[in-house]
Write a structure and sequence with these properties.
single chain; 7 strands; alpha/beta; Rossmann fold; about 190 residues; seven-stranded parallel beta sheet
């Protein structure tokens, strides 16, 4: 089964990270999203990796839909060249709107906000509230310590082993997008 993915919610850093590794990877992902005609749905800023991905999507002829909070827009963080922008009152409303707009989710390297947004999407899939695949863009092994922690959850019997396959993990943008399109939802109950 191949899923039709016309939009992807991207969670990533509003900082660029150390060196140029993450910036180069953000451009590569943005180019691939734009090349495939997938709409980027993201936090709406021009800052950090978020801005880099949006710029790359737009440069590749794609569409970028920003959903930003009033506070951040008021601070001048709204990307000025997006295909579509929405300003919402709160972070919670931003997350809900992004989830509603997206057919899939990707987390790039980022901080605690990135991880929180990704975990919410994965949890909603695990509980059957969503059927939208989620993936980690594992740039330079960034998410390997996190995957190790997931494996620890499994070893300690807080997560069924099958749920390890509840996300797609790849360092390659094309393989990641292909994996999301081919994803089959894990239907094993979360309870051991």
């Amino acid at each position: 089964m191949t899923r039709s993915i016309s939009s992807i919610a991207l969670f990533c850093g509003s900082n660029a990270g150390l060196g140029d590794t993450y910036t180069l990877a953000a451009r590569a992902l943005g180019r691939e999203i734009g090349r495939r005609g997938i709409t980027l749905v993201y936090g709406g800023t021009h800052k950090g990796l978020m801005g880099v991905v949006a710029d790359a999507v737009l440069a590749a002829g794609g569409r970028a839909h920003g959903v930003i909070t009033q506070r951040l827009a008021g601070l001048g963080h709204l990307h000025p060249a997006l295909t579509l922008s929405e300003i919402v009152p709160t972070l919670r409303q931003r997350q809900e709107r992004m989830a509603a707009l997206a057919d899939a989710f990707i987390a790039m390297p980022g901080g605690i906000g990135t991880l929180e947004e990704f975990m919410e999407a994965w949890t909603m899939n695990q509980l059957g509230e969503l059927d939208k695949p989620a993936g980690l863009y594992d740039v330079a092994g960034y998410y390997q310590p996190f995957i190790g922690f997931i494996d620890h959850m499994i070893a300690q019997e807080f997560l069924p082993r099958a749920h390890r396959d509840g996300i797609v993990v790849s360092p390659d943008p094309s393989a990641l997008l292909d994996g999301l399109a081919q994803f089959e939802r894990v239907t094993v109950p979360k309870w051991l």
